[in-house]
Specification:
The protein contains twelve helices and 15 strands. The chain is of the alpha+beta class. The protein has a seven-stranded mixed sheet with strand order 2-1-10-11-12-9-13, sandwiched between helices. A four-stranded mixed sheet has the order 5-4-3-7, with no helix packed on it. Strands 6-15 form a two-stranded parallel sheet. A hairpin with a 5-residue loop joins strand 10 and strand 11. Helix 3 crosses helix 5. The two termini are about 35 Å apart.
Length: about 350
Amino acid sequence: MNNQFESHLIYGGEYSPRGKWDYSAEWKTKWDKIISDYANFKDSDKQRLDKMDWWRFLVNNGIPEKDLQIRDLLDSTDFGESIRHVSAYAALAEYAESSEKNEMDYKIKGGNSMFTKALVERVGNENILLKHKVKEVSQADGKVDVLCENGTVFSGDALICTAPVYSLLKINWKPGLPEEKLAALNQLQYARISKHAVLFSDRFWQDESFDMVTDIYGHYFYHATKNQPGKKGALISYTIGDKADVIGNQNDDFKTEMITQTLRPAFGDIKDKIITHLNYNWGTDEYTKGGYALYGTGQWFGIMPLLKKKFMSTYFAGEHLADWQGFMEGAIVTGEEAADEIAG
């Protein structure tokens, strides 16, 4: 199902609906040239770009201040942290190699659980083991043994490890991971994202394709019940970086006021329309400590090759090794690549 949106904007206390705001003509012309020039980039150009952060790249290309601030709001929504922390190559490649409306932005009819159910049918429920937290991985003589905390041991000729970095570093590797891979793992950060779902008594935003970026705490909202029947509607808010830590630590009353204050310039007082809300702070998640991987200055070409590199009979996969971070599609592609490498 299509899950693409048309962006509204709250900036400086003023609300601009879809189609009523835009970047300056000066910047739009320059941006088109940047995207066009990217097609001719050599590998050396991309590596040079990777040594710069995205904010610096935009500034060096003469982006006007207001355009910069709006781009920062929108682009930091994609990456989960300030664009001052993002590799300029990682950012430009994502925007230049995709369409204006990101083709990744689709959702599964019936919810993402339908995808899980389909996998179970293909793989077999008996082959999917929960509550088997990996404690140790031992490798020797072309064999791999995986020891779980419950005492179960799995043995094989090869292993595909898809654990996010925080969890991967909790595993006892025998022999230990190479120093260069260990250093790379310790350098990769994950984006701090607080996801806040709010159920309202009606869809006062009156736009099925509604999303909105703001310059205050709410940061970003999108219509989560798009193309679903019913009067009630849900908006999901993403806050990122330092703002995610602030929001994630507050009580429900604070979060209610935050949602209300953020939306007020566009829709007035909507507090009485809130039925319930639920927050999850990915920055404190037990297994990831973040929403998804974030490649900083110099890291795309600096540490990603080391993160991808197999170790003895272990191959690595996951969204953090994909061309674009934060998508199930990328995780699947990297898994397929690892499987193909094992199969030869």
